[in-house]
Design goal:
380 residues; alpha+beta; SH3 type barrels; Alpha-Beta Plaits; 3 domains; three-stranded antiparallel beta sheet; elongated; disordered N terminus
């Protein structure tokens, strides 16, 4: 009869000891061997990954789960070699199987997270203004979180499948078409938001309708994409509030993205002035203000008459800046400067209400002459 070499090697120094004591000593020896193997393997992998950023990040993220995985693996070998008649040996084996699956799941999740951080690390936060860097950040975060969710679901399903009762329940449900259909319908309804956001996240990562750092208008609220998770988007509004929007909403509803292809924007300033306002001095003042403004990017500075009413004419100023924040500040600066210029140099050209009283004064002047005649007529 052949003897298992691992079992014989572990049990040779133990002699004729009680079964549980022998198993405990074997497990202790397995823990020591696992920690020694982890230390040697960690040194080897760090030396091999010393010249590669991604590999070094993976080693750092997988170090802690591997420190538990290797001892658990050696303990599992020792427990599998224990006699089947040993008290509580089967629950112990089941518990070790669950621990191994859970540790392996955590290891895979940590490796995915490490790979994502390594990719994002190549585009640090100071380069987040670059559209390509924002695309990499968005795709990496969404895909990594989606993959971590899938790994977690597979790990949880694998752990549940180790319970015989769960397998029997699943088999009985699948055996009955009606019950299987009902279970599938209930599961589909319950999982619809999760699966919808998961699919929406993949669509957003691949098609890029929005990215981290983009300036959006969502339901009339303007803000910048601060965080993009596997189920929702955090939009930081201009007044420091946070708008939480599900990923699926962006696939099903229209929204404005001011930085889709570039961060450069055009801003408008509207003014109403009297028809007597000369435009050339106002255009010269606009050019002077734009040249002195640090927010202006030297692309566009234009004044046009865009509308006219019975009382005044509307002037539109078109301005350009490098991003949304600079555009807002430039619009406010130009509006204040032009209003101050008009108030100081052409105060009489501000919008005003005109009225004519000529006919009224004529009637008042004619009233004294008309009164005696009317009185005479009345007496007669």
């Amino acid at each position: 009869m052949e003897t298992d070499p691992v079992k014989g090697w572990l049990q040779a120094p133990l002699g004729e000891t009680p079964p549980w004591l022998a198993l405990g000593l074997e497990c202790a020896l397995a823990v020591v061997l696992g920690l020694v193997a982890h230390s040697l393997l960690l040194r080897l992998m760090r030396r091999m990954a010393s010249g590669f950023i991604v590999a070094r990040t993976l080693v750092d993220h997988g170090r802690r789960p591997m420190q538990f995985l290797l001892p658990l693996l050696f303990i599992h070998i020792a427990v599998d070699d224990a006699p089947a008649t040993l008290l509580l040996i089967n629950p112990l084996r089941h518990l070790l199987s669950i621990a191994l699956l859970a540790t392996l799941t955590v290891l895979c999740i940590r490796l995915v997270k490490g790979a994502a951080e390594a990719v994002i690390g190549r585009y640090p936060p100071e380069t987040a203004g670059d559209p390509h860097a924002r695309s990499v950040h968005t795709q990496t975060r969404v895909l990594s979180r989606t993959l971590m969710t899938l790994v977690g679901m597979i790990g949880a399903a694998s752990i549940l499948m180790t319970f015989p009762g769960v397998r029997q329940i699943g088999a009985s449900l699948l055996a009955s078409a009606g019950m299987a259909g009902m279970a599938g319908l209930v599961a589909g309804i319950a999982a619809r938001p999760v699966l919808g956001n998961l699919i929406a996240g993949l669509q957003i990562a691949l098609t890029e309708p929005l990215r981290i750092g983009d300036m959006l208008i969502v339901d009339g609220e303007s803000g910048r994409v601060e965080e993009l998770t596997g189920s929702y988007v955090v939009v930081r509004l201009w007044d420091e509030r946070r708008l939480i929007v599900p990923l699926e909403w962006f696939i099903q509803n229209p929204f404005q993205n001011w930085t889709r292809s570039s961060s450069e924007l055009l801003g408008t300033v509207f003014l109403w002035v009297d028809y007597a306002m000369p435009l050339e001095p106002l255009r010269e003042e606009l050019q002077r203000v734009c040249r002195a403004a640090p927010e202006w990017d030297d692309r566009l500075c234009l004044l046009q008459v865009t509308d006219a009413s019975e009382r005044a004419m509307q002037l539109r100023v078109l301005l350009s800046a490098s991003d949304a924040a600079q555009t807002w500040d430039l619009r406010c600066r130009v509006r204040e400067a032009l209003l101050a210029f008009i108030q100081g140099a052409y105060a009489d050209c501000l919008p005003r209400q005109r009225a004519s009283f000529n006919d009224t004064f004529d009637h008042i002047a004619d009233a004294p002459r008309a009164a005696p005649a009317a009185l005479a007529g009345a007496r007669s």
